[in-house]
Design goal:
Metallo-beta-lactamase, Chain A, 7-stranded mixed beta sheet, 221 residues, alpha/beta
Length: 221
């Protein structure tokens, strides 16, 4: 069982949480945080409001080094410096140096396990390298993307080499026709954050589309 709660996002699902540009979600059973939003104060307040203790986090995976995904990291590390942080060599050298000094930095180079049934896709894309999560469930892999700069279709294609993909959530960024078509066989869609074609996706796939935003939780077996 995996319970994934969005704790930082451009969209609000529950009224008592702060909305801001960026993305972060928490996987409860593994105490794993994926991305850290753009502002540490907002991230920590939202976590407090949904009952997440920063000191309980064991692993942080950063999709890419844009400010709206890494901005809350160092405020979090002030409270929990012993955490494992999964980054990539494509991050700026100054950022990598600080991450290494303030956490247990692990560099991801390819599709690889983080914990049981949760994998990093490894770096994908060209202009902006990005890693996403691939979570193995009974239905297949669930993709959790930060911004999908490499395009959501590329991420789906990459994870499909490891097994069937049943769903995707997180930022889908710029969605072209190939991206939109790649979503048709998925049974779960919960785009948020930077997705620029939210209405188009909702209209094309009303039966599989789920509203996402700060405070929304999904459970998967």
């Amino acid at each position: 069982m995996f319970t994934i709660t969005t704790v930082y996002d451009n969209y609000r699902y529950k009224g008592n949480l702060n909305v801001a540009h960026g993305f972060s979600c928490f996987i409860e059973e593994e105490n794993l945080l994926f991305d850290t939003g753009g502002d540490g104060e907002i991230l920590l307040k939202n976590m407090e409001n949904v009952g997440i203790d920063p000191k309980d986090i064991k692993r942080i995976v950063i999709s890419h080094a844009d400010w709206d995904h890494i901005g809350g990291l160092f405020d979090l590390l002030d409270l929990n410096p012993d955490v494992d942080v999964y980054g990539m060599r494509a991050f700026p050298s100054k950022t990598l140096k600080e991450m290494k000094e303030r956490s247990n930095l692990i560099l991801v180079d390819s599709f690889s396990p983080i914990v049981s049934d949760i994998y990093s896709t490894g770096p994908l894309g060209t202009f902006i390298k990005e890693q996403s999560l691939a979570i193995k469930t009974r239905k297949g892999f669930l993709i959790v993307s930060g911004c999908a700069h490499p395009h959501i279709s590329t991420i789906i294609e990459s994870v499909s080499r490891e097994g069937d993909v049943f769903g995707a959530m997180g930022g889908f960024h710029s969605v072209n026709k190939r991206d939109l078509d790649s979503l048709k066989d998925l049974s779960f869609l919960a785009p948020s954050h930077c997705t620029d074609s939210m209405d188009e996706i909702r209209s094309a796939y009303p039966e599989t589309f789920q509203e996402n935003g700060v405070g929304r939780s999904f459970s998967f077996e």
